[in-house]
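Marked as duplicate of an earlier ticket. Keeping the data here for the record.
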Amino acid sequence: STPSGDTVGFTYTLLKTPTVLRVEPRSLSFAITNNVTLIGYNFGLLKKLVAVHFGERPCHVWDANETHVICQLVRSAMAQPPLCTEVSDVYSTDCIVKPFDFFVQPTLLVSGRGYAKTLPDSSLDTRFEIHNVTPSVGSE
């Protein structure tokens, strides 16, 4: 209740919750800047009320309507803990001893509607891709 004694209510309904069904494209390397489309429902009509992140990376919203959000995901360096430099580091919890999780689900916040429910199929594969190495021949 409020200081004046009035009761304040909150009603949650799944029917009004923003829901992300899928993301297109399905994969986008950390090294590339590109638009990403979130497809679902209850996203709202005003892009200024929508915020999107993939992990720690903000996705700048260009357009939004009830069923689609188009945002630009800017290239970034992969954020990883320090690499193992000595044999003793392998036993450290700060050392990478398993593959990095490259599959990231979006965090979508719609002002006035809350955080979106994201379905398992809505993850983005952000594996770092190398397409060319120059020079093709090195020293011996």
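See parent ticket for discussion. Residues 11 and 134 are 59 Å apart (CA to CA).
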